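Subject: design request, 93 residues
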């Protein structure tokens, strides 16, 4: 199968170059920054990279705007883990 690749992506259009570039940045981030990702948390990592891609300087969003958007996005969300089992103080062991 042959896919014609355009040298530049036009505004509001998605081409294979756009998708390949996004996946390349995601893969580089996963190998370089996070190193391991459990499948149950994959959607969180994808959401972070989607936020980065959608709010980058090339689209006219500066660091302070990006920080404000990130802080607005964390409202009402909390990642919790199951508490480890701890035997009670009176238990024989």
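Subject: RE: design request

Done. Sequence follows.
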């Amino acid at each position: 199968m042959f896919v014609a690749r355009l040298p530049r992506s036009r505004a509001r259009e998605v081409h294979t170059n756009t998708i390949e570039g996004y996946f390349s940045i995601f893969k580089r981030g996963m190998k370089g920054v996070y190193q391991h990702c459990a499948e149950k948390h994959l959607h969180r990592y994808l959401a972070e990279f989607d936020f980065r891609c959608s709010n980058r300087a090339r689209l006219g969003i500066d660091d302070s705007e990006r920080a404000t958007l990130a802080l607005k996005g964390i409202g009402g969300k909390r990642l919790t883990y199951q508490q480890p089992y701890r035997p009670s103080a009176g238990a024989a062991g």
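The longest helix spans residues 16-34.
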